Amino acid sequence: IDKNAAHILQPDITWLGGITEARRVMALASANDVLVVPHGSSIYSYHLQFAFVNAPLGEFINLSPDGCEIKPYFGALFPDEPLPKDGKITLEQISKPGFGCTLRKEGLRRPYPRSKEEVSANREKNLSALKATDVKPVMPLVGSYMPCMPGSKS
């Protein structure tokens, strides 16, 4: 962005690191008047596209074999997945919490099995972390702005 190497950015939200990283890219691009058209991210990008003026349109990947009908990007995983009408997605279509649609949970399964002992141990670990009072939240930062780092200007 700083070198004006691209006039339009097309980040893929699922490869980029999720919605938070995508929002950062959108904000940086917006601050520098660079257009963004998220790459076929469907429900993951719709809210971003409404929130930023530098995202004038979205990419919709049509998974119809012959291209003659609109098919949901995620199949039956989201029964109310917003689909374009007259080439548009409206804000009303994504007005529910989260990504604006409902996850169909029937038939979902873990990609690998976990024993009851593993489930119980993981649960206890998470519960004990919630109860910890002596732990201070930390966000590790890396970069030239950090004091005491080689090459920093402190």
Features:
two-stranded parallel ribbon; single chain; 4 helices; mainly alpha; 154 residues
Q: How would you describe this structure to a colleague?
A:
The chain is mainly α and 154 residues long. It has helices at 13-16, 19-31, 43-51, 116-131; strands at residues 8-9, 35-36. The chain has a two-stranded parallel sheet. The longest helix has 16 residues, at 116-131. The chain starts with 7 loop residues before the first strand and ends in a 23-residue tail after the last helix. The model is unreliable at 139-147 (pLDDT under 50).
Could you give a quick summary of the protein structure above?
With 154 residues, the protein is mainly alpha-helical.
Number of distinct helices:
4
Largest pleated sheet: 2 strands, parallel
Radius of gyration: 21 Å
Beta strand %: under 5%
Order of helices and strands: EHHEHH
Shape assignment? extended
Give the strand line-up of the largest sheet.
1-2
